[in-house]
Write a structure and sequence with these properties.
elongated; 4-stranded antiparallel β-sheet; 10 strands; ABC transporter transmembrane region fold; alpha/beta; 6-stranded mixed β-sheet; Rossmann fold; about 575 residues
């Protein structure tokens, strides 16, 4: 209802046309009764002509009213669902990163597509049809009472039983519909994983395995849908049989009333047509009830996400007038939300001066990348504090904070758009000249210029049409254009060949100038130039100093470097 409120004027106008169309539709049975009782009985041809001509006018007006009713309700419903999709997507993007650690992408995209499509049918056509059938049923029952209260009471005797059945049926269908949507979401998750990782699937010749996984998931969805359809079949069979039984009783008793002279043939004919109209309307409402129960299950899942309050807000808080780049980690303890019983950081102390370049090294699982994630406030520590220029990060505006942090990862994420658009992602308002300048600073301009489309070249999904070194340089250009005060290089050159590493390293050195930089790396070439090397093991800082100092000490750093030389 809250989503529909902005469309209130359109919905009210549609309701007006709905009432007009329904009222005019109820005129027809009464006219037939009048023709039978008066015009045919009296042999008045002129009266029949007048009635027929009047009905032509009534039907034309009714047709226009029905068209306007359909247009107004359907466009209002489309606008409601469009807004719902927008609100849902905005809510999803505002959630903290830990939320996405616990949810699969396929499940969330299914909420945006499948669940909102179910709601789309409900809030557009189905609501209009429900109101139309309800108006037709109520108006028909009123005219039935006017025509013959006794026959109406006989016909309506079935309503309580059908109503009780509808309530019970609705509860079952709602649960089964929610279960079916969950099963379909699981199938979509399998498809999303298989398609996004198709190169891995192909390299392991696992196509049959993935097809079987998807088949099993869709079969589960089908089984739930079959049970829901079975429940619908039982209810529709019962409701239909009850309706026809009531019609048979009405016809039997009405025929007796005509023979006894208590009712005219015209009135019985009108009554039977009204009964048919009411039965059709009630039958349609029964069908729509099933759809509404399905929509109720989908809405529950959608609103669960739209109403969810993120643990870390997307924006809101203090914005510093200027950033020096002084970073402090004070006794920070942290475990990921999905593994709270596995501590990753165990009392980390780290102080990075403005403009200092600090390399963080250590074995896998030591907590290096977690330091970077906490700096960008992707997560909040369970204990301890992370500060920027003396201000705790929890008091700063997260949106503003992330604008101050530039990240170049080992596997940068590029969007399926042009090279220029991917670079401009760092600053959407940047001009073409600024984009090119950033590309030159990142050693990317030369290879971009060799493409026939230049900066308009499409990179494909996740940048698959570019090499690893080219993707890295595009990511560096994006960071250059963003011009952050804090820079995080997370294994930025570990997957590159020697030539690409040289070009990327050269671009990174330009990017680091004047910025507080954290380098998370294994390769010696990316560490030796750092002002300080911080060595981590088991979630703790075990050594700190420049490269030469640490090489002169017995410890983890020296062992890591020696192993690298042996491997080389």
């Amino acid at each position: 209802m809250g989503l529909a409120r902005p469309q209130a004027r359109r919905i009210l106008l549609g309701t007006l046309f709905l009432l007009v169309a329904s009222a005019l539709g109820l005129v027809y049975p009464k006219v037939i009764g009048d023709i039978i009782d008066q015009a045919l009985h009296a042999g008045d041809r002129a009266r029949i002509d007048r009635i027929a001509l009047a009905m032509v006018g009534v039907f034309l007006v009714q047709g226009v009213a029905m068209a306007l009713r359909y247009y107004l309700f359907t466009t209002a419903g489309e606008r409601v669902v469009t807004r719902l999709r927008q609100d849902l997507f905005q809510s999803l993007l505002s959630q903290e990163v830990g939320f996405f650690d616990e949810r699969k992408t396929g499940e969330l995209t299914n909420r945006l597509s499948s669940d909102t499509t179910v709601l789309q049918n409900t809030v557009s056509v189905n609501i209009s049809m429900a109101l139309r059938n309800a108006a037709q049923a109520l108006g028909g029952i009123a005219l039935l009472l006017y025509t013959s209260p006794v026959l109406t009471a006989l016909m309506l005797a079935i309503v309580p039983a059908v109503a009780v059945g509808a309530v019970s049926y609705g509860r079952k269908v709602r649960g089964l519909s929610k279960e079916a949507q969950d099963a379909l979401a699981a199938a979509n998750e399998v498809a999303e994983e298989s398609l996004s990782g198709v190169r891995t699937v192909r390299s392991f010749a696992a196509e049959r395995h993935e097809v079987e996984r998807y088949r099993s998931a869709t079969e589960r969805a089908y089984d739930v849908a079959r049970r829901r359809i079975m429940q619908s079949s039982y209810f529709l069979a019962g409701a239909s049989s009850a309706g026809y039984l009531a019609s048979a009783v009405v016809l039997w008793y009405g025929g007796r009333l005509v023979l006894d002279g208590a009712m005219t043939v015209g009135n019985l004919t009108s009554f039977l047509i009204y009964s048919l109209m009411v039965a059709v309307a009630l039958g349609s409402l029964a069908d729509l009830w099933a759809d509404f129960m399905r929509a109720s299950g989908a809405a529950e899942r959608v609103f669960e996400l739209t109403d969810r309050v993120p643990a870390i807000p997307a924006s809101g808080g203090e914005r510093l007038a200027s950033v020096r780049g002084h970073v402090e980690f004070q006794d920070v303890r942290f475990a990921y939300p999905t593994r709270r019983d596995v501590p990753v950081l165990k009392g980390v102390h780290l102080d990075v001066a403005p403009g200092e370049v600090v390399a963080i090294v250590g074995p896998s699982g030591a907590g290096k990348s977690t330091i970077a994630a906490l700096l960008a406030r992707m997560y909040d520590p369970q204990e301890g504090r992370v500060r920027l220029d003396g201000r705790e990060l929890t008091g700063l505006d997260p949106e503003w904070l992330r604008q101050q942090v530039g990240t170049v990862a080992q596997e940068p994420m590029l969007f399926a758009s042009s090279i220029a658009d991917n670079i401009r992602y760092g600053r959407p308002a940047a001009s073409d000249a600024e984009v090119e300048a950033a590309a030159r600073a990142a050693n990317a301009h030369d290879f971009v210029s060799r493409f026939p489309e230049g900066y308009r070249t499409l990179v494909g999904e996740r940048g698959v049409q570019l090499s690893g070194g080219q993707k890295q340089r595009i990511a560096i250009a994006r960071a250059v254009l963003k011009d952050p005060r804090l820079l995080v290089l997370d294994e930025a050159t570990s997957a590159l060949d020697a030539e690409s590493e040289h070009l990327v390293q050269e671009a990174l050195e330009r990017l680091m100038q004047g910025r507080t930089t954290l380098i998370i790396a294994h390769r010696l070439s990316t560490v030796v130039g750092a002002d300080r090397v911080v060595v981590m093991e088991g979630g703790q800082v075990v050594q700190s100093g420049d490269h030469a100092t640490l090489m002169g000490q017995e410890g983890l750093y020296r062992r890591l470097v020696e192993r690298q030389f042996v491997a080389a």
